[in-house]
Design goal:
Layout (H helix, E strand, L loop, with lengths): L1 E7 L4 E5 L7 E4 L16 E9 L2 E11 L2 H4 L10
């Protein structure tokens, strides 16, 4: 299944929006494959599987497919100290 990172928290989890689904899917940083949590940005396209978690459906095996538009123009990664 594919989706877009909708929200990231500073506590190591976030939510993935899925086209055609009303609710976003929860994911935890332990569910990431091949990428670190701090490398993700809202708007990134990801693939994932869904499993039943303690509090409902949760994304697992989350893999980055494509960086979102905010990463393409560098606005999310500007180093003001340079």
């Amino acid at each position: 299944m594919n989706g877009i990172i909708k929200k990231l928290t500073d506590k190591g989890f976030g939510f993935i929006g899925v086209e055609g689904k009303e609710k976003d899917v929860f994911f935890h940083m332990k569910s990431l494959v091949g990428i670190q949590f701090d490398e993700l940005r809202e708007g990134d396209k990801v693939s994932f599987e869904i499993e039943d978690g303690q509090k409902g459906p949760a994304a697992v095996d989350v893999k980055l497919l494509e960086e979102g538009a905010a990463n393409d123009n560098g606005s999310a990664d500007v180093d003001l100290a340079a």
